[in-house]
């Protein structure tokens, strides 16, 4: 089965080919224009997806050495995400499915992130059940995964997502957009103990997260400092802030493991690219004898490889979505994306 995956939920236009469950190409065109505005501008994103989707598809076919006639299925993100951006991918996929007479399957973007853990090694029977921490720009959620397709929410952020906390923190620190990679880089040479930022909800009973207080604490910290000191301690501030975000993620993850008794953990989403988080996950796995996985760097942020792989899985199970399918900007991972 040759599946073309399409991703356009936010500011990355992606097209990827998966042949019989093996990733053969993955083309991502990232929209750098948003950095001028300090965040994603929805209308700009939609226009750029329109410009980029055909070149991304052509390139992914070329790289995989596959022609349009050979495609046996199409997988496309229908939510969650920006409405106008999602429409570009879905309409493109519907047109192609109709013209070529091939099946279409609608994919939940968050389930795609989950699949990014199984792009370089196939999913094995004994991988399930596991706990999944999804940490992106729009979501921070803990899920119990009994098998692929069967998900139960354990906890989520009550306010900002972890990626949003990085993006907003970076804006306050004048480190640019996207904020996660900028803070990660600045923090490499900083002192993480320079400021003791709060760890909201750490130690609390459930598995929920909260990050908005952390951003506010950074705001007030910066107000207490003069511009010259901020400039000379920017790396220290970034390292302290990053450590607080990662501490919160680790605390909630530990809680989920404690509550469920599970020993397998997968982390996915843009924030899974964070070097401190990856380091802390490795240390924890070794100390507590857990099996912890996270995707290779290039598959943490948005891409179509994960959508094509989720599509392969769902198409193999016989799932099909009608050509009347619609975008679902607020789709949850435990809601079916297929109709
Ligand atoms: O999954 P993703 O590409 O898009 C969404 O589905 O939201 O995640 C983007 C988020 C952004 O907030 C970005 O700042 C964050 O992931 N991110 C990082 C890193 N790389 C990307 N956060 C922390 N450290 C990183 N290295
Ligand atoms: Zn994403």
What's the quick description here?
This protein is of the alpha/beta class. The chain is built from ten helices and ten strands. Helix content is 41%, strand content 19%.
Write up what this structure looks like.
With 339 residues, the protein is α/β, with parallel strands linked by helices. It has 2 domains: 2-115 and 299-316, Nucleotidyltransferase, domain 5 (2-Layer Sandwich), CATH 3.30.420.40; 125-294, 2-Layer Sandwich (Nucleotidyltransferase, domain 5). The protein contains 10 helices and 10 strands. It has helices spanning 42-64, 83-100, 109-115, 162-172, 179-187, 212-223, 227-232, 234-260, 275-288, 305-316; strands at residues 2-7, 12-19, 22-30, 73-79, 104-108, 130-135, 140-147, 150-156, 264-268, 291-293. The chain has a 5-stranded mixed beta sheet with strand order 3-2-1-4-5, with helices on both faces. Helix 3 (109-115) crosses helix 10, helix 4 crosses helix 5 and helix 8 packs parallel to helix 9. The radius of gyration is 20 Å and the shape is globular. The model has no long low-confidence stretch (mean pLDDT 96). The protein binds 5'-O-[(R)-(carboxyoxy)(hydroxy)phosphoryl]adenosine and zinc ion. 5'-O-[(R)-(carboxyoxy)(hydroxy)phosphoryl]adenosine binds at residues 10, 136-138, 163, 166-167, 178-181, 184, 269-271, 273-274, 301-302. The site of zinc ion (ZN) has 6 residues, from helix 3.
């Amino acid at each position: 089965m040759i599946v073309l995956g399409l991703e356009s939920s936010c500011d990355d236009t992606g097209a990827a080919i998966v042949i019989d469950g093996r990733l053969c190409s993955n083309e991502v065109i990232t929209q750098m224009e948003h950095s001028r505005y300090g965040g994603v501008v929805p209308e700009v994103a939609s226009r750029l997806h329109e410009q980029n989707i055909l070149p991304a598809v052509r390139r992914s076919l070329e790289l995989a050495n596959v022609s349009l006639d050979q495609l046996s299925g199409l997988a496309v993100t229908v939510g969650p995400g920006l409405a106008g951006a999602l429409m570009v991918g879905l309409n493109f996929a519907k047109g192609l499915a109709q013209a070529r007479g091939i099946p279409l399957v609608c994919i939940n973007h968050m389930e795609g992130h989950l699949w990014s853990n199984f792009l370089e090694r196939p999913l094995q029977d004994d991988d399930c059940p596991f706990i999944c921490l999804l940490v992106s720009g729009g979501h921070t959620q803990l899920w119990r995964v009994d098998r692929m397709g069967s998900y139960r929410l354990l906890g989520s952020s009550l306010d900002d997502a972890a990626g949003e906390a990085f993006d907003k923190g970076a804006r306050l620190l004048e480190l640019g957009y996207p904020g996660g990679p900028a803070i990660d880089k600045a923090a490499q040479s900083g002192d993480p103990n320079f400021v003791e930022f709060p760890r909201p909800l750490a130690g609390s009973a459930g598995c929920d997260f909260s990050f908005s207080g952390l951003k506010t604490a950074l705001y007030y910290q910066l107000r207490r400092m003069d511009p010259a000191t901020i400039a000379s301690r920017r790396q220290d501030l970034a390292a302290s802030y990053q450590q607080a975000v990662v501490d919160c993620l680790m605390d909630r993850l530990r809680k989920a493991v404690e509550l469920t008794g599970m020993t397998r953990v997968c982390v996915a989403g843009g924030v899974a690219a964070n070097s401190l988080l990856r380091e802390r996950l490795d240390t924890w796995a070794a100390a507590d004898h857990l099996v912890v996985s996270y995707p290779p760097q290039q598959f943490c942020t948005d891409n179509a490889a994960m959508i094509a792989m989720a599509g392969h899985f769902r198409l193999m199970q016989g799932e099909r979505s009608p050509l009347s399918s619609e975008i679902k900007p607020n789709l949850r991972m435990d809601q079916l994306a297929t109709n």
